[in-house]
From TrEMBL:
Domain RNA-binding S4 intervals: 362-403
NCBIfam families named in the record: tyrS
Record gene name: tyrS
Lineage per the UniProt record: Bacteria, Pseudomonadati, Pseudomonadota, Betaproteobacteria, Burkholderiales
Organism: Noviherbaspirillum saxi
Chain segments carrying region Disordered: 1-21
InterPro entries (UniProt xref): aa-tRNA-synth_I_CS (IPR001412), aa-tRNA-synth_Ic (IPR002305), Rossmann-like_a/b/a_fold (IPR014729), S4_RNA-bd (IPR002942), S4_RNA-bd_sf (IPR036986), Tyr-tRNA-ligase (IPR002307), Tyr-tRNA-ligase_bac-type (IPR024088), Tyr-tRNA-ligase_bac_2 (IPR024108)
Gene3D superfamilies listed in its UniProt record: HUPs, RNA-binding S4 domain, Tyrosyl-Transfer RNA Synthetase
Assembly and interaction partners: Homodimer.
Record-given protein name: Tyrosine--tRNA ligase
Amino acid sequence: MDASKTLQNDNKSTQPLPLSDSVQEAMAVAKRGVDELLIESEFAQKLARSEKTGKPLRIKLGLDPTAPDLHLGHTVVLNKMRQLQDLGHNVIFLIGDFTSMIGDPSGRNVTRPPLTREQIEENAKTYFAQASLVLDPAKTEIRYNSEWSDPLGARGMIQLSAKYTVARILEREDFTKRFKAGTPISVHELLYPLMQGYDSVALQSDLELGGTDQKFNLLVGRELQKDYGQEPQCILTMPLLEGLDGVEKMSKSKGNYVGITEPGNTMFGKLMSISDTMMWRYYELLSFRSIAEITQFRKEVEEGRNPRDIKVLLAQEIVARFHSQKAAEDALLDFDNRAKGGIPDDIPELSLSGAPLGIGQLLKQANLCPSSSEALRMVEQGGVRIDGDAVSDKGLKVDAGTFVLQVGKRKFARVTLS
C-alpha cells in the first residue's frame, strides 16, 4: 500500500479542540510558501493542544552533511524552521551523520557514492554554524542520528526492516524508474527511508520538514511512529528553490547557487542577476517581509515602478541577514560602481610570468575562466575587458605590465605580468 495513500486523520482526540485566533495565525505562518502540509487538521489540533498545555511542539529538520557549505536553497526550509521557532516551538536540527554513510537516493538515477566517516565529520563541523545564521542557536536542539542508529546493531536493523515491505519501498518514483530501466539499486539504498523514518521515532517528532523531494521519506517516518505506538508526525514540504538560471534547482554542482558564506558583494551581484519574474519566487521563499508588503511591491511594479528597485531591496535584505546592514549598503554601492564601468575595491591581485601571454592563457591563469577555450569564447562574446577597454581579438598577446582584467560583470583581477 502506498504510504501517501495511508494518510488518515487518526487524531486520537474525539473532541477537537477549538482553534483560537493565535492558533489560526500560527497555521497561516506555517502554511506560507509551503508545497504541502499534511495533515492540516491534525497539525491545527497539535497547535491547539500545545497552546492549551503550554508544551511546545517538537519540530524536526534533518540534513545529511554531503557538502561543506550551505546555499540559499537550503535556507528555504531553515527559514520555515525559524518562523516556527519564533512561535515558541522546539526545533531540532538533525545532522544525518549515520544516513550520510548510506547516501540519500531521493531523485537519483544511480547509486550515490557513500561518504567516508572523515568526510562526514568535516562537513558536519560547518553545518550547524552556517544553519545558525538563520536559526536561533540558543533555542535549537542539535542532534546526530548516529546517537540511536549505531546502537541499533544488526539485530535492531533486521527488526526495523521487518516493519516495511519491499513493495512499498519500490513505490518510490525514483526506485520505480531505476527498477524498470534495469539500473542497479543497492540493498543499502532501500534502508535509507527506514533510517530517516526511525529518526522521527527516536526524536518523537510532532512535525518534520523537508523539500518536496523528501515527501516519501517523511511519510515513512509517520508510518513507523504508528508502528511504535507514537502519535504520527505531520509533514511539511517546502518547494525546491530554482537557481540563478531560473530553471534548475539551486545547486553548487550546477553553478547556479548563492552560498550563504560568500562575500556580501558577491551575494548581492548574484541576486541582482535573477530575472524580474524569478524575483517574486525568491521573495516568497527567502524574504522575511510580510505577505502584505510583497503584495504591495507587486502592485507598485504593475503600476510602473522599476523592478530593479524591488530587487535591490531583496538583495540587501539577504546580504544583511548573512553579513550586516553596512555590508548590504556597501554591496549596493559596489554594484552601482560596476554598472557604471567602475572597478571594485576588493578584487584579487596576482603576479604572473610569461609575457607576452595569449589572452586565453592569461584569463585562465588569472582564474577568471576555467579554460583558455572558455576565455576565447568570452572574448568572442564581448565579455572581456582590460583596464576598461573591450577585447575583441582572440589572438591578442598581452605585454608585461600591471592592469585590471574583467570577465563579464562580476569577475575582476589586478594582474602584474612579467
